[in-house]
Design goal:
The complex is a heterodimer of chains A (about 260) and B (about 160).
Chain A: H1 3-28, H2 42-68, H3 74-86, H4 88-97, H5 109-134, H6 138-162, H7 168-199, H8 202-219, H9 221-224, H10 230-259
Chain B: E1 2-4, E2 8-10, H1 21-31, E3 39-44, E4 49-59, E5 67-77, H2 83-98, H3 118-143, H4 148-154
Antiparallel strand pairs in B: 1-2, 3-4, 4-5
Helix pairs in contact in B: 2-3
The chains are: A mainly alpha (about 260), B alpha+beta (about 160).
Chain lengths: ~260, ~160
């Protein structure tokens, strides 16, 4: 029996399993077990879960490529780690959705710093990767990326703990998003677009689109984070998730385009 | 490279250096292969080079089948992407095709050259266009920085 025939048995087996499940569902009409903690926070849980899945998928894929390409492309490793670190914020959202008070970033400035420092590191990591490609000057790679992470963390510390403000978390987000996060996203988008345009490749352009959408999604935070319109913020949150998809897709396409022989 | 009806495929003009004999022999072989696309590349792993090619069919009153087969080729390092050069090669193949009686340039030094006053002039135009094409390619790689970003990204594996 060939391996193709064995695969057909897998299909037949699958049909048998789904038939049994369907018969059970139709006969018993089962009710799913309740999760009371999620009754009022299911939307946050769903959004955070999707975000974590995508961020980890990007992180795992980049790490995989770093290994597969002989560990010679530092950008792949640094970006991979950056995506994992970025996910800290969203892991906290998952626990917060389950009603764990300590996971609520809005509980205090200290909690906000605890769950958001990864964004400053992510911004610096992204910048390090791009500089690693664009320049051989190590001092520039280190200075600029550490500078971005450093200024980002400084904004977080100053905004949350030092500069007097009625709402330190809000003030910090305004400061951080509009001086670090959004410009870094635009830079990433532009560099990938420029490379894609000049090399006539689709992968970098798809990544560029992802970072552009990521940037736009964070522009949505400031006007819609206020209590009376915060429900719109959750739509921006879903838009943010959409932006991660082209980033993942773009990296996969970049690999494929590199491997496909040209005719 | 063009197809000389008496001698077969021949290098008409090469810049900045002559094409090394072993590479020229390989080019003569694949000049004859039937490819669907007129733009293609051949990798020679042993020499760590690639040859990027654009085939041009130039209407001719003198050639068999009334078509002169010509090929613009770039011998480049393996890590350079062929797509980078497509627009320039395409542009110059259009310029060759739109130059009236350019095919006569291929016949310099042949018997019939003595009987046609246009051949020397067309040959000069042909060489001038090929030189310009080379300069454009050089500018792409060095001058305006267009290819720099591609080289920077593609020094790494993705």
């Amino acid at each position: 029996m060939s391996s193709t025939d064995k695969i057909h048995f897998l299909y037949i087996g699958g049909l048998a399993v789904i038939s049994l499940i369907s018969i059970y569902v139709l006969a018993v009409i089962p009710h799913g077990a309740p999760v009371p903690q999620l009754q009022s926070s299911f939307f946050l849980f769903g959004l955070a879960m999707n975000t974590c899945v995508l961020l980890w998928s990007i992180g795992i894929y980049l790490l995989h490529r770093w290994f597969k390409t002989g560990k010679k492309n530092p950008a792949l490793l640094v970006w991979s780690l950056s995506f994992f670190i970025f996910s800290i914020t969203f892991i906290a959202h998952l626990f917060r959705a389950f009603g764990i008070a300590a996971a609520n970033e809005n509980l205090s400035p200290a909690h906000f710093l605890l769950y958001r420092w990864g964004m400053a590191v992510f911004a610096g990591g992204m910048f390090y990767g791009i500089l690693n490609i664009l320049t051989d000057k190590k001092w520039l790679q280190i200075t600029a990326s550490v500078g971005i992470s450093g200024v980002g963390l400084l904004w977080l510390i100053l905004g949350l703990f030092v500069i007097p403000s009625e709402n330190p978390i809000e003030f910090t987000m305004y400061l951080f998003l509009h001086t670090i996060w959004i410009p870094v996203c635009l830079t990433m988008s532009y560099v990938f677009f420029y490379y894609g345009h000049k090399s006539k490749k689709s992968g970098p352009k798809i990544i560029s689109l992802g970072f552009l959408l990521l940037m736009i999604s964070y522009f949505g935070w400031a006007p819609w984070h206020f209590a009376e319109v915060v429900y719109i913020y959750f739509i921006w949150y879903s838009f943010f998730i959409i932006s991660l998809t082209p980033i993942l897709l773009g990296f996969v396409v970049m690999t494929l385009e590199e491997q496909t022989p040209q005719t | 490279m063009y197809f000389n009806s008496l001698k077969g495929p021949e290098v008409l003009y090469s810049v900045p250096d002559d094409v090394p004999k072993p590479i020229r022999k390989k080019m003569q072989k694949f000049f004859d292969i039937d490819v669907q696309d007129n733009f293609f590349e051949i990798k020679i792993l042993k020499e760590n080079i690639k040859i990027i090619n654009m085939i041009i069919e130039i209407p001719s009153e003198w050639a068999r089948g009334h078509i002169e087969m010509a090929m613009l080729s770039i011998i480049a390092e393996q890590d350079l992407k062929s797509e980078l050069f497509h627009d320039i090669l395409k542009g110059y193949s259009q310029k060759l095709l739109s130059t009236e009686n350019i095919y006569k340039g291929f016949y310099k030094g042949e018997e019939r050259a003595r009987n046609d006053a246009e051949i020397e002039g067309k040959y000069k135009i042909l060489i001038q266009l090929l030189s310009e094409c080379y300069e454009q390619l050089q500018a792409l790689l060095n001058g305006d920085g267009n290819a720099q970003i591609v080289k920077k990204f593609e020094k790494f594996k993705w």
